[in-house]
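In the design runs reported in the main text, the only information available to the sequence generator was the tokenized backbone. The following block is the verbatim input for one such run; it is reproduced so that readers can re-run the procedure and compare outputs position by position.
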């Protein structure tokens, strides 16, 4: 792996995050699969969605270790973590002033690919939770309709975001080759719109199951305990807001890399 020796480079931080995160994710997904398969002996669509999402975000992280021994210029890897990790070879975490024109083009290529995989992974994560809600509380007609409405909202804005990402420039390769003749959409409004919708969808996913929990025939203590379990959705909501702020900062920064 090519290393930027600039001490202010974020390259090493990115690599560490791309190794640690898939390990932790794989641990939790493994526990879930084992429990659902061998303990409860019953799996649902939410479990399959969780596995697909895990593959798209984590499965290929060991390739990062082999990066110095292989050529990845033409390798398409579906794992978001490995894409970002390998992106440190092409400018992720570097200062733009330290990058050659070739490396800047390669950086934009990896941004293009990893952004697409990120959106697919994000869709899988949100759909997994919503399918879980349907399995747990789907007997309630109003709740079922509300959950499907949120799922359609998630599909709609993420699919629109995906199309904007892929076809935002004409020709497409102008995204990573700015000097190519053609044009690109002005993405300022898109960044604000999609970032806001991502935060809103996380808020919906967090709030959606809470009324059902408090209608269950449980003691107040048990209801509070179950509510705390679903409070994990609040963490996702906070992370979405923080990411949105960082994305806006990066979008308006002069040193975007």
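Verbatim output:
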């Amino acid at each position: 792996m090519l290393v930027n020796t600039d001490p202010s480079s974020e390259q090493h931080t990115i690599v560490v995050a791309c190794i640690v995160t898939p390990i932790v994710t794989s641990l939790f997904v493994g526990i879930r699969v084992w429990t659902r398969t061998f303990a409860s002996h019953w799996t649902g669509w939410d479990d399959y969605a969780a596995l697909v999402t895990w593959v798209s975000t984590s499965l290929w992280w060991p390739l990062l270790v082999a990066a110095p021994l292989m050529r990845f210029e033409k390798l398409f890897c579906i794992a978001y973590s490995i894409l970002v990790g390998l992106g440190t070879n092409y400018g992720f975490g570097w200062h733009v002033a330290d990058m050659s024109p070739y490396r800047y083009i390669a950086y934009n290529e990896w941004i293009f690919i990893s952004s697409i995989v990120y959106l697919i992974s994000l869709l899988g994560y949100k759909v997994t939770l919503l399918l879980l809600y349907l399995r747990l509380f789907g007997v309630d007609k109003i709740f079922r309709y509300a959950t499907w409405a949120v799922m359609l909202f998630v599909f709609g804005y993420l699919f629109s975001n995906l199309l904007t990402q892929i076809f935002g420039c004409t020709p497409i390769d102008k995204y990573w080759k700015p000097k190519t003749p053609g044009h690109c959409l002005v993405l300022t409004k898109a960044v604000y719109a999609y970032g806001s919708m991502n935060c809103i969808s996380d808020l919906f996913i967090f709030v959606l199951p809470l009324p059902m929990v408090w209608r269950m025939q449980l003691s107040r203590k048990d209801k509070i305990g179950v509510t705390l379990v679903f409070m994990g959705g609040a963490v996702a909501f906070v992370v979405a807001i923080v990411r949105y702020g960082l994305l806006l900062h990066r979008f308006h920064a002069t040193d975007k890399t």
